[in-house]
Amino acid sequence: MPVLSIIACGMLEDELAYVLSEDSELAGLVLVENNEHFGLQRKLKSLGCLPALIPLDRVPEILKEEHNQSLLAILKDLCSFHFNEKIRRKLEKQHKTKVTVVANMLRLGLHRDVELLKAEVYRNIKEMSRFSDRILIFYGICGHSLANLEKDFDDLECRLFFLKDEKGETVEDCISIALGGNDAYVRTLVNSEGAGTFYLTPMWASSWEELPTDNVSDFDKKYLKRYGRVAKINTGLSYEQDFDENVRDFARFFNLKIVELQGSKKIAGQSYQNARKFP
Predict the structure, then answer these.
(1) Which of 185, 224, 260, 277 is the least crowded, having the fewest Cβ atoms under 10 Å away?
(2) Is the separation of the CB atoms in 257 and 230 below 8 Å?
(3) 257 and 10 in contact (C-beta within 8 Å)?
(4) Is the pTM higher than 0.90?
(5) Topology annotation, domain 3-172+266-275
(6) Average pLDDT over residues 186-196
């Protein structure tokens, strides 16, 4: 049974919950147990998905046990039949469609330190490649901190997949993902009517108050003086119930005008389908 692992940014928790809950062909779903898994676990549960919660260091052992059990079930199924062409096609079809996914959420605040972000993503790729057939990097380039990732791991036996737009380009960041790709992001920036715009997805809006108070008042408020507006990006995902209220609180705190933008979930959906399509 092939294993697709996903290393995901906390800012893309909604998108990951969406693609996993839509996949009815999963053989198994493992959520890595760490300090960051709670939000995704809650959202998956609300969508009818109950992943196995396993610490990362125990995942290889569990996957091996799961593989052995699956093999025994197949052998039992075959014991009453001759290994004919019909059975062979049945097993091939099962191999193509059934995938075990291991999802690993990384810390939300890593994007504030590009070197730490790079180190954590690289470390998890090395560890998860030991038991994975493929790894989907559920991140954008993120300020170019991950721009060389594909080249740096070009000799890795485990194939890496990325969040890419319709041109095949890895997306810039979570805002580009929410808007539907790099071109859509550029068009939005060009059409911003000269006013600096800060972009909020549901996860961004729910998380800004978790930043240290000193940082918000001393750094971010000065940084946000260049902006006049905050854009509320409606991706069609409503797992964060207080999106409207969170955007209003953000706008009030930084004295910004609210505008609404239509978002998209196609980048996450298509990239996931590309990664889980085993030959």
Answers:
(1) 260
(2) yes
(3) no
(4) no
(5) Rossmann fold (3.40.50)
(6) 76
